[in-house]
Specification:
mainly alpha; 0% strand
């Protein structure tokens, strides 16, 4: 029972350290050994793809590029739309948070004090708003790219920068959305948060390291 009363102090920081530590490790691998990460391999392929766009300007290539950018744009729009819906839903839940905390008074659900509940929703709002911002910026970059590629006198360097910027914004928006899942489950207590963090890190590891293919293979 004593341990249950301190679950928030034990499992919540452990969950956050696990999530942050994984992304620090991912950033280290991306910087020093990009070929072992899906993110690094995709970045290399994307740069080669951007160079091909610039060098091979014809109608067939242009249509394929526009279609590819449109798919990325639609993905970012979907991410932004889902995020804003979750923000609205979270706002409705927050409005009744005080009454709901009475239903979750068991020690299994961790602390339900006003400060703790407020902290939970602040974290969730922060990540969701950041995710929405990044997804929206990705959409702006892809729209700008579609415009640039429709004119004949675009700047190759600027096009490459916009492709990289848009893809990175899309990645950050998606990743922030994924990280929000354990924070949302924190509402149900620190145990679901910890379990969901372990599951999330395993899934992200499979995506970031388990799907790597040699760029030249």
């Amino acid at each position: 029972m004593i341990v249950l009363l301190h679950l928030d102090r034990i499992l919540v920081p452990l969950s956050m350290v696990l999530s942050i530590g994984y992304h620090v490790y991912l950033a280290y691998c991306f910087k020093n050994k990009p070929h072992v990460t899906t993110l690094g391999v995709n970045t290399i392929r994307r740069r080669n793809w951007a160079q091909t766009i610039i060098e091979d300007q014809n109608e067939k290539t242009g249509n394929l590029v526009i279609q590819s950018l449109r798919n990325s744009q639609m993905g970012s729009i979907l991410g932004a739309s889902v995020t804003i819906l979750m923000i609205l839903a979270l706002s409705a839940i927050t409005n009744n948070a005080y009454n709901a905390s009475d239903l979750l008074s068991n020690s299994y659900f961790g602390s339900q004090s006003i400060k703790t509940v407020l902290l939970k929703y602040c974290f969730e709002y922060s990540f969701l708003v950041f995710s929405f911002f990044c997804s929206s910026m990705a959409v702006i970059c892809f729209v700008q790219l579609n415009f640039l590629l429709s004119v004949a006198d675009f700047s190759p360097g600027y096009v490459q920068d916009m492709i990289e910027r848009g893809c990175w914004f899309a990645f950050l928006g998606n990743r922030s959305f994924y990280v929000t899942v354990p924070l949302l489950l924190w509402i149900l207590g620190p145990v679901p948060m910890m379990l969901s963090t372990l599951a999330l890190v395993w899934v992200l590891y499979q995506l970031d390291f388990g799907m790597v293919r040699c760029p030249n293979g």
